[in-house]
Structures are given as C-alpha cells and as structure tokens.
Amino acid sequence: MTATRWLSPEEREAWLALVSIMFTLPGSIEAQLQAEADLSLAEYLVLAMLSEAPDRRRRMSELATVTNTSQSRLSRIVGRLERDGLVVRTGDAKDKRVVLAEITDRGLGKVEEVAPGHVEHVRRTVIDRLTPEQVRQLALIGRVVDDAADVSVLGTVGTAD
C-alpha cells in the first residue's frame, strides 16, 4: 500500500476554492435563468448549443457531450423542451438509428430573449472578476480537469458515442 499524498496548504486551498465554485456557481446561474426565463441551466444549455449548431440541429449523442449531460438526462430535458414547443426530435434521413434534436423558431426566439441576461450574469459573477490571462488559465484548467474526470469515469479520455 502506498502512502497517501496529502494536499499541501496551497493545494488544499485551490481544491476548496474549486469545490466552492462547484456548489455555488451553478445555483447562482440556475436562479437567474429560472427567474428571468423559467429555464433550468441544462435546458438553456441545450437550447444554446442547438442555436449555435449548423442547421440548428445536433445528434442527441453529440448534444449530450457538448452539454456535459448523460443521454438519459438529455432525453428528459429535450422531452420538456419539446412539450414547450422549443425543440423537436427527428430521425436522420441518412441513418435511421440516429436521433436529431432541432431548435424550433420559438426555441431560437427564447434563446435570443434569454441570452443577454444570462451573459450579463456570467460576466458579473465570473468573467469580469478575472484578468484576460486568468480567463485563459480558467479555460485551460477547465479542459485539463474535465479530461481527467472523463478518464476517471470512463477509463479513457473522451466520451463514447
């Protein structure tokens, strides 16, 4: 058995800061989206990722990856958005096994209505508090930590399709 590699005081401080972010930031963003648009963060991310996609549609498996959610959770989220007329699911004409999610005109209008307030909240709570160099570092740190989390969950880097 190997000896435990305890965190140094600086590492512990960094870890606790990350834990704090993981617990407080999503709630802050969720509250803003619920109050202003009656959307969850996950619903907003689905709509935003579809609005940015070519032809305003994505494979469900790809959408799960870009929104950092499981396929089963994504299916429930897309179902709620479908009931509200914001998204439709269709089959892929080239591959009948593939399900596509597509944002409707109403869904696109919702994103266009919500995005300014969401971006302002993100700026106020995160981006504007950092220097440009810290923003670059945060992006890099996020990618590195996310890749490591994928490895520990999946056993390999990346996600399966």
From TrEMBL:
InterPro entries noted in UniProt: HTH_MarR-typ, MarR/SlyA-like, WH-like_DNA-bd_sf, WH_DNA-bd_sf
Domain HTH marR-type: 1-150
Superkingdom, taxonomy of origin: Bacteria
Alphabetized Gene3D superfamilies for the sequence: Winged helix-like DNA-binding domain superfamily/Winged helix DNA-binding domain
Matching SMART domains: HTH_MARR
A Pfam family assignment: MarR_2
GO molecular function, one term: DNA-binding transcription factor activity
BP GO annotations: response to stress
Name by which UniProt lists this protein: MarR family transcriptional regulator
Origin species: Kocuria flava
